[in-house]
Amino acid sequence: MRFKIHLGPILPPPPGSGGHFEPKGSRHVAFMELPPKHHSDYERSSDSSEHNPHCFACGMRTFMCIFVFFLLLLVIGAIFISFLYAGLPRVQIRRFEFSKLNISEKISNTSNSTSTSGKVHLTADTDILMVFRNRNGISKLKYGSFSVKVSWQDIKLGRTEIAAFTQDKNNSTTFSLRTRVEEQEVDLEDLNELKTELENENAVFHLALRGDLGFNFGSLNVHGLPTSINCNPKKQQIDLARRPRCRVRLFPV
């Protein structure tokens, strides 16, 4: 079945229409382009959403690398310190005795009496024999000068110094030290207690040494490490030749 559509002649535009004629039923279709700014904003937002996971992953990898690096440094440092502690010398007290112990009869708080209370003056010479032993067969030890302080409770028994020296592997060095106090004011009660402990051979003295220590591992030299040596010899142990050991520490607080 066929249909035929007959279109009549197109009539000219009416007067006053300006020569423009638009047939009825015609439609206008407008195309609008987004400004460049809108395109860039859209692309930037899509790019940022795509790159954010990658940036987070990169940050995590960097953090993990730094963490592992510092962890390795700590482990290496701990191993190195342990190695140094294994090479520390052994220090012992072989002899500790008073070669002189005098108490003046003058009492500080009275003029011409010998009361059993108050303060008296002490003059004492202390002789000490110390042994430093380098037990390791790997490194030499280089000792800086060490200050030595001797005391019993609150009574100071003098100070001295050990000069710097070097010790070979598997070697021992012995020092004979003497400290002295002269006319030192002390409590009479404390001095009487010291005399009683000396008679009973249970007096415990304190030696404090402060200085620095170095290690020579062939071409590797580590010098100037702060070192403390603390000894608490008991008179009875020394008399029995037990040679009490001292505590040697690096980096004392």
UniProtKB/TrEMBL annotation:
Could you give a single Gene Ontology term from the biological process aspect? defense response to other organism
- Which positions, given as ranges, span the membrane? 63-88
- Is Coiled coil found in the keyword set? yes
Ordered alphabetically, the record's keywords are: Coiled coil, Membrane, Transmembrane, Transmembrane helix
**Its domain of life?**
Eukaryota
InterPro entries found in the cross-reference section = NDR1-like
- What's any one GO cellular component for it? plasma membrane
Annotated coiled-coil segments of the chain: 181-208
**Where, subcellularly, is it found?**
Membrane
UniProt protein name:
Late embryogenesis abundant protein LEA-2 subgroup domain-containing protein
The organism named in the record is Ziziphus jujuba var. spinosa
